[in-house]
Amino acid sequence: MNRMTAISPGAEAADPAALVTRLAEAARLAQRTLAAMPSAARAAALHLAADALRAATPAVLEANAKDLAAGKANGLSGAMLDRLALDDARIAGIADAVAAVADLPDPVGQVIDQSEQPNGLKFQRIRVPIGVIGIIYESRPNVTADATALCVRAGNAALLRGGSEAVHSNRAIHAALVEGLIQGGVPAEAVPLIPSQDRACVGAMLTASGLIDMIVPRGGKSLVARVQADARVPVLAHLDGINHTYIHHAADPAMAEAIAVNAKLRRTGICGSMETLLIDSAYPKAAALVAALIDAGCEVRGDGRAQALDRRVIPASANDWDTEYLDAIASVAVVDGLEDALAHIARHSSAHTDVIVTADEAAAERFLAEVDSAIVMHNASSQYADGGEFGLGAEIGIATGRLHARGPVALEGLTTYKWQVRGSGQTRP
Amino acid sequence: MNRMTAISPGAEAADPAALVTRLAEAARLAQRTLAAMPSAARAAALHLAADALRAATPAVLEANAKDLAAGKANGLSGAMLDRLALDDARIAGIADAVAAVADLPDPVGQVIDQSEQPNGLKFQRIRVPIGVIGIIYESRPNVTADATALCVRAGNAALLRGGSEAVHSNRAIHAALVEGLIQGGVPAEAVPLIPSQDRACVGAMLTASGLIDMIVPRGGKSLVARVQADARVPVLAHLDGINHTYIHHAADPAMAEAIAVNAKLRRTGICGSMETLLIDSAYPKAAALVAALIDAGCEVRGDGRAQALDRRVIPASANDWDTEYLDAIASVAVVDGLEDALAHIARHSSAHTDVIVTADEAAAERFLAEVDSAIVMHNASSQYADGGEFGLGAEIGIATGRLHARGPVALEGLTTYKWQVRGSGQTRP
């Protein structure tokens, strides 16, 4: 079955493609076991994994201390070190998240639709796991657990490839999870950790057509861009979250201000944060809106008309309309009506999340219909762009591509379907 | 809007990428018009297109005669010429198919699911068109009409790239359809015909990420393989239809014989035809089954045990188990029980359509659950693997990939979805 078993470990370390092939082939075999397990057994195994992770807290903290020391020595930024750092509470949170995914409803086996033809053939489309999913991620060690839990819950194998800066933390978390999963009957081969030292392993994963069914990159723009550029395997990813909030002339001023400030500043580093505020030229409280953003600590870069609203507004450059700041900076443009707002969004949106604030239902419905983004919102903050907030329980990511799954992708997005056809001897005339 | 308008026609002809870019950008703009049309208006426009095609029968026949003459001069095979040839009845059939697609239920705007969160946010997932779809096809001119109809019905623009051997036929069919579509309010730019003389246009389509949302190849294995190898745009495709029919020991002999002969011989050139017959070693009528296939005109290539069943069985080579004959040839293997059949299928199936014939419901259910193919059937001929037979009305193709859509892909597979979120001023805590 495994055409790589003849290769010695030494030769394999020198050949990342052979290593990835061996692990992916083993994962595919293990995935069959996983898919054949009853849903409750997969859930129970994930609870055991969560328990094992809780019990391994001291070992995980020790490993994490090594990564943090190496990160400091290597000059990682404070933000990077914060993403890397674990403590008792964070580990408990990671374990709780694994347990929460275990308790999510299982999409596998769901009947999507069914029909019967006049010739008596019965058709059912049922959800099945995708198969082998490659996860390529950066410094946050919680992804090791999140991705494992989501993949296993939906019956998928996961090839986990974390960042080298988190290598010890990822290994410790992975070892604990695997201990619990094995107790629960899930083969360890279903969730292999790919060595993070060798960057060539990423290239091997990206070109492993037929071995890996889908790649999910989790990390910064440069990682995702590399994955999208080089992958020969389908990728579920979003690049930018250049999200717009359009304040229509009929917006309630208090609501407009609360939504704009929340959308931009609640957390500036997440992909659902607002980057561009579009203010209708007929909106009566534009100056107060811009002042509120600036007073709340946001740098505002504006077009000519936005600069006229507040002398603290900095001139925007052409680039600003296509920039994901992920910081306390917003670009602000004044637009002439819904049509103009739709045109600006069509030109500059990254198709992640765009929002209209208005009391005019007809304008809202037109915006929701015509803005061609994964998520379109009326009278709500774009910071709600999150699988948990959508009631999906957890998400593997937010997809801005157009095929397979769009917006927050949770368990359903980690499944595909097959057609089951039941007959009684029909032959086709 | 269109950064290519400054290029002269001469320069553009020399630059296929510029031509494809210009046509795709114009198609994307036109697609917005199409998507904003009411469903009934898109249906009415397709009926006008079908009428215009019927009215253009003489012009289409004249164009087809040119292609046939060129094909004969260029030494096209009889099968290729047959695929290319049109007559009154075939043109009427093509027009009827366009009208039938016009009458299919429109998936666009369907609410997939909806929910409300405790904070009052309301979520709906609604189907929307994918956008711009590239169709790359070979000699059959009917694809020009089929693909146009399916794309337009679901609100998509279609970039049509037919084979050079059908250039005049495709142009004549396209001109007629566009005449009808324009009458119905569909912009001609939504369904451009890409020049078929220049092979570089195919390469330009395959790498047009961001301009083309999905490529559908329709044609032989070498075309599909080239598209899959070179595409940077998502591809909806199947390569082989290496379909198995497994005759379980508890199969009814009359049913087994009827299904095997129909699955192989009804039409040998379609992707749903059986290529490999697996006969259980405990099935009592194996010799009669093999004899029936051979007596019906099928060449049988078998493993040792199959050869022992009938002296007319030719020895199979290792390649035979992975070969799509598309001809009156079948490979036959004798297997030891369901487990062995599942293992053979897992090793050799192309994940298109696999069938079990048995009166044992438990064995059938296990086969339907464990065979990981797009279509799995119990007691029916694999020749039913067709969107029309599945009640989907028509199909753009049969997908053997795992993401987005699987098996027969019809209108629903030409849509994606977006999330509409309706609030009342919610900001995220």
Automatic annotation (TrEMBL), chains A, B:
Reactions this protein catalyses: L-glutamate 5-semialdehyde + phosphate + NADP(+) = L-glutamyl 5-phosphate + NADPH + H(+)
Record's GO cellular component terms: cytoplasm
Alphabetical list of Pfam families matching this protein: Aldedh (PF00171)
Protein location: Cytoplasm
Protein's pathway: Amino-acid biosynthesis; L-proline biosynthesis; L-glutamate 5-semialdehyde from L-glutamate: step 2/2
UniProt-listed GO biological process terms: L-proline biosynthetic process
Top enzyme class: oxidoreductase
GO MF entries: glutamate-5-semialdehyde dehydrogenase activity; NADP binding
EC number: 1.2.1.41
Residues of the Aldehyde dehydrogenase domain: 17-282
Keywords: Amino-acid biosynthesis, Cytoplasm, NADP, Oxidoreductase, Proline biosynthesis
Predominant location category: cytoplasm
InterPro entries linked: Ald_DH/histidinol_DH, Ald_DH_C, Ald_DH_N, Aldehyde_DH_dom, G-glutamylP_reductase_CS, Glu-5-SA_DH, GPR_dom
Similarity comment: family membership: Belongs to the gamma-glutamyl phosphate reductase family.
HAMAP family the record matches: ProA
Protein role: Catalyzes the NADPH-dependent reduction of L-glutamate 5-phosphate into L-glutamate 5-semialdehyde and phosphate. The product spontaneously undergoes cyclization to form 1-pyrroline-5-carboxylate.
Record's protein name: Gamma-glutamyl phosphate reductase
Lineage: Bacteria, Pseudomonadati, Pseudomonadota, Alphaproteobacteria, Sphingomonadales
